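S.,

As promised, the manganese (II) ion run. Input:
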Amino acid sequence: MGLATARSVGAAQATGSVLVFLDAHCEGQRDWLRPLLQLVKDDRTAVAVPKIDTLDWDLNYSIGDGDQLGGFDFEGNFIWFLPVGNMRRENRDEMPKRTPVMAGGLFAMDRSYFFELGDYDDQFKDWGGENLEMSFRIWMCGGSIHMLPCSRVGHVHQSLRLERRVPWLDQHLLNTARLAEVWMDHHREMFYLYHPEYRNNPIIGDISSRKRLRERLQCKSFQWYMDHVYEDRFMPMKDVIAWGRLRNNASGTCVEVSEFNAHIRSTSLQACATPLRGLQAWSLTAAGTLRNERRCLTTVQEVSKTLLHIVKAVACYEDEPDVNQFWRYERGRLIHEYLHMCLLAVQYEEHQLAVAPCDDAPDMYWSFDFTGNRTLENYDFFSGDLFETQDQLRSLQSIR
Ligand SMILES: [Mn+2]
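Predicted complex:
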């Protein structure tokens, strides 16, 4: 029946005043439940999530990073992120923290409020997307989500995506397209940039009842959510000098970050992807970082007896600038501000991206899909092959 439907069935059977959802593969620590219930008792529109720690496959317990909050990327994935700006300033101690998105498997919510707010989308099948859908809905329709660091629950993280029930159908993306249509307003075009095949596709099914729900609850706009709940979030096309795939002129290949979910990710050069993939979407920000939605490019080490500094992708520290994360784009070369060296395509051991003393070799020249303007209004969107329609352009232009 799928995850969301199973939860709905459980919620309908429950008789207590508070629903507590916990994945089966969890282990609560001492007194984990009381803080969650207290928050819901104090405010029935507040949804409480514990701090999720990690149980490995041998059930060893390790403490999760207390600074991380739940968010999403525009490809439709749930992500953990380090808050910046205002969000970071309210994130200092062991008090409850407002979180834009919940991971979804562990939370407590007033039972009557759960149904008032529209239960889950009954067309969500299999797994995925229901956490984003519910998080957007809670915030936009008057509720709130809080992560409580004093409630600790260990969770066994799945290392791979579940096998698809229907092999040719990515139900996670289908669910995400539904929620994008209902909740994300113009920002849905960001999702379709990565997944254009779901745009105006009847395969996502009838969404009219969910749209009526949003109408009935008089929910706020997605722009409001981005401005007030997920504030200071990096937007791939906003306040940037250049944006899109980052193509090496000599090889014609594009910079890609590895999917491997480690703190430090390696980079490589791969065939340029159409449609755009998140792993190949780069922005040179007005602040001078070279980043995607999750990571910033940085130099991490000098290879001994060479002049090469390898380039990898790490967490962005735009609040506490790391000198190794700043770049300048000058006449086709990407100059590392601190080392005064140039980004270059290499074949050195397993590495493909490095900086070295600048010269005029073609493997030091790079082009982005879009350059030269800091606002969306002036992009020549149709010079690339990433956009399909004028509607799409107008929607993206209206994102603040
Ligand atoms: Mn789980």
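Residues 32 and 151 are 4 Å apart (CA to CA). The longest helix spans residues 171-183.

- D.
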